[in-house]
Automatic annotation (TrEMBL):
<dbReference type="InterPro" id="IPR002328">
    <property type="entry name" value="ADH_Zn_CS"/>
</dbReference>
<keyword id="KW-0862">Zinc</keyword>
<keyword id="KW-0560">Oxidoreductase</keyword>
<protein>
    <recommendedName>
        <fullName>Alcohol dehydrogenase-like 6</fullName>
    </recommendedName>
</protein>
<dbReference type="InterPro" id="IPR036291">
    <property type="entry name" value="NAD(P)-bd_dom_sf"/>
</dbReference>
<dbReference type="GO" id="GO:0051903">
    <property type="term" value="F:S-(hydroxymethyl)glutathione dehydrogenase [NAD(P)+] activity"/>
</dbReference>
<dbReference type="Pfam" id="PF08240">
    <property type="entry name" value="ADH_N"/>
</dbReference>
<feature type="domain" description="Alcohol dehydrogenase-like N-terminal">
    <location>
        <begin position="96"/>
        <end position="223"/>
    </location>
</feature>
<dbReference type="GO" id="GO:0004022">
    <property type="term" value="F:alcohol dehydrogenase (NAD+) activity"/>
</dbReference>
<dbReference type="InterPro" id="IPR013154">
    <property type="entry name" value="ADH-like_N"/>
</dbReference>
<keyword id="KW-0479">Metal-binding</keyword>
<keyword id="KW-0520">NAD</keyword>
<dbReference type="GO" id="GO:0005829">
    <property type="term" value="C:cytosol"/>
</dbReference>
<dbReference type="InterPro" id="IPR013149">
    <property type="entry name" value="ADH-like_C"/>
</dbReference>
<dbReference type="GO" id="GO:0008270">
    <property type="term" value="F:zinc ion binding"/>
</dbReference>
<dbReference type="InterPro" id="IPR011032">
    <property type="entry name" value="GroES-like_sf"/>
</dbReference>
<comment type="subunit">
    <text>Homodimer.</text>
</comment>
Length: 437
C-alpha cells in the first residue's frame, strides 16, 4: 500500500475504472459525498424516480409469475475463477417467493471469501451477491405482503415470523429462513437459475449478481419508493451488521471505551454506532495504514496498526484504556484476532462481539481465565436485527440523516465490470463497490 492514503487508493481505483469503462462509467460516477452533509428528504423522490427511469427498467404492473426470464448474471464456475457474464434462465417464483429486478448490489467481504473458498468447490457454478436493492417483478402463489413494483431490500437471513426464534423477540436466527449454506432455496432445496440447462447454485438464497433473482418473501423487506436504491443496498448486510452490533448486541453506553479490529464497512459502521452512542474512546485496529483517515471520519479517536505497533496490540489497548476496553469488536474474519479482541477488553464486564466470518481455522482458542474473570464473548449475524421487524426503522433513520451511509460507497460501477470490483476488494482498495445492474 506504500504511503498512499486510503483516499488516494479510492482515487486510483476510480481512475483505473474510468479508463476501463469510458463514458458508461462516467455516467455512473456518484455525486461526491461528505460526512455530515445533510440531505433533504423531500429532494430524494424526484432523484430516485429519475434514476430508475434512466436504468430503462420496463416494469409492467402484470404479475408474470409463470414465465421464465432470460437475463445476464455473473456466474462463478469455480472457486476464485473470474466471474463469467452468462445468459441465465431465471425460473418463475414458487409459492411464497418473489422474483426481483435487482437494481443495485454492493459487494461484501463475505461474497469474496466464499467465492475464493476451495473447501466448498462442490457448490459451483454459483451466483454470489447478497447486499442488494431491487423492484418486485412478479410474485408467487400465496404472497400477500408484496406487489409487483414494490421496492425492496434483500436479506441474507429471513424472518418467517412464526418459528420459535422469530416469535421469541430475542433472536434473528429464524429456523425456517436462516443462513442458507448449501446454495439452494430454503423451501425445496432446488435452484431457480440455470445456464444451458445446467442448474446454478445460489448464495445465501439471495444471489444478487444477476439482473433478476428469486428470493423467499421472508427474505425481502419493503422500502419506500423515495429511498435511494443505489445507497440503501448497503443496509442489506454490512452497515446494518455493524450498527446492530454496536446498538443492539453490545448496547454501548455513553462514555465507554471501544476497540474495533478491522475498519472495513462493517468495522466503520460499528465505529459510527459507538460514536452516536457517545463512546468516549474508540480505538481502531487495522493492518492497512490508510484506514486511519477514513476511520477518523467515522469516529475513531485512536489508531493502531498491529504491524508497526512496538508491543502486543492487547497490551497497547490496555494502556490506552486503563486496563482494557469496555467493548471490543472483531470485524476482520480471523479467529486469532477474536482471541486478541477478548484479551483487549477489561475483566468484570468486558464484552467482545464477533462479526467477522473466518476464512479458515474456525476454532477460537483463549485462556479460560479470560472468561472466568467476567468477560463475555458473543457472536452476531446481521447485527442481531430481525429484518422485517427492525430494518424499516434503520431505513427511516438513514432517510432522516441520523447516520452516514453514502460515504461508505467508495465506487459506483456498472455490473459489466464486476470482476474489477472483486479485485478492488481483494486488494483492500475499497469500502463498498456498488454495482448498477
Ligand atoms: N456478522 C455479519 O453479519 C457480517 C456481515 C457482513 C460481513 N461480515 C464479515 O465481517 C468481516 C468484515 O467485512 P467487511 O466487508 O468490512 O470487510 P473488509 O475487507 O472491507 O474489511 C476488513 C478490514 O480488516 C482489515 N484487516 C485485515 N487483517 C487484519 C488484521 N489481522 N488485523 C486488523 N485488521 C485487519 C483490513 O485491512 C480491512 O480494512 C468479514 O469477515 C465479513 O465476512 C459479517
Ligand atoms: Zn455481507
Ligand atoms: Zn422464523
Amino acid at each position: 500500500m506504500g504511503n498512499e492514503t486510503f483516499t488516494d487508493q479510492y482515487r486510483l481505483g476510480k481512475a483505473e475504472l474510468r479508463a476501463a469503462n469510458g463514458i458508461l462509467f462516467l455516467l455512473l460516477l456518484p455525486v461526491p459525498t461528505s460526512v455530515g452533509r445533510k440531505r433533504k428528504r423531500k429532494e430524494t423522490k424526484p432523484r430516485i424516480q429519475k434514476y430508475i427511469s434512466s436504468l430503462g427498467i420496463k416494469m409492467s404492473s402484470a404479475n408474470n409469475s409463470q414465465t421464465v426470464i432470460k437475463c445476464k448474471a455473473a456466474v462463478a464456475w469455480g472457486p476464485g475463477e473470474p466471474l463469467v457474464m452468462e445468459e441465465v434462465e431465471v425460473d418463475p417464483p414458487k409459492e411464497m417467493e418473489i422474483r426481483v429486478k435487482v437494481v443495485c448490489t454492493s459487494i461484501c467481504r463475505s461474497d469474496v471469501n466464499q467465492w475464493e473458498n476451495k473447501a466448498q468447490a462442490d457448490i459451483f457454478p454459483r451466483i454470489f451477491g447478497h447486499e442488494a436493492s431491487g423492484i418486485v417483478e412478479s410474485v408467487g402463489e400465496g404472497v400477500t405482503e408484496f406487489e409487483v413494483g414494490d421496492h425492496i431490500l434483500t436479506v441474507f437471513i429471513g424472518e418467517c415470523q412464526n418459528c420459535r426464534h422469530c416469535v421469541s423477540g430475542k433472536s434473528n436466527m429464524c429456523q425456517k429462513l436462516g443462513l442458507e449454506r448449501r446454495g439452494v432455496m430454503h423451501t425445496d432445496q432446488k435452484t431457480r437459475f440455470s445456464v444451458r440447462g445446467k442448474p446454478i447454485y445460489h448464495y445465501c438464497a439471495v444471489s444478487s449478481f444477476s439482473e433478476y433473482t428469486v428470493v423467499h418473501s421472508g427474505c425481502a423487506v419493503k422500502i419506500g419508493r423515495d429511498v435511494p436504491l443505489d445507497k440503501v443496498c448497503l443496509l442489506s448486510c454490512g452497515v446494518s451488521a455493524g450498527l446492530g452490533a454496536a446498538w443492539k448486541v453490545a448496547d454501548i453506553t455513553r462514555g465507554s471505551s471501544v476497540v474495533i479490529f478491522g475498519l472495513g464497512t462493517v468495522g466503520l459502521s460499528v465505529a459510527q454506532g459507538a460514536r452516536l452512542r457517545g463512546a468516549s474512546k474508540i480505538i481502531g485496529v487495522d493492518t492497512n495504514p490508510g484506514k486511519l483517515e477514513i476511520g477518523s471520519a467515522f469516529g475513531i479517536t485512536d489508531f493502531i496498526n498491529p504491524e508497526t505497533c512496538s508491543q502486543p496490540v492487547q497490551q497497547a489497548i490496555k494502556e490506552l484504556t486503563e486496563g482494557g476496553a469496555d467493548y471490543s469488536f472483531e470485524c476482520v474474519g480471523d479467529t486469532g484476532v477474536v482471541t486478541t479482541a477478548l484479551q483487549s477488553c477489561c475483566d468484570g464486564w468486558g464484552l467482545t462481539v464477533t462479526l467477522g466470518v473466518p476464512k479458515s481455522k474456525p476454532e477460537v482458542t483463549a485462556h479460560y481465565g479470560l472468561l472466568l474473570s467476567g468477560r463475555t464473548l458473543k457472536g452476531s449475524l446481521f447485527g442481531g436485527w430481525r429484518p422485517k421487524s427492525d430494518l424499516p426503522l434503520l431505513v427511516d433513520k438513514y432517510m432522516n440523516n441520523e447516520f452516514e451511509l453514502n460515504k461508505l460507497v467508495s465506487h459506483d460501477m456498472p455490473f459489466a465490470i464486476i470482476n474489477q470490483a472483486l479485485d478492488l476488494m481483494r486488494e483492500n482498495k475499497c469500502l463498498r463497490c456498488v454495482l448498477h445492474m
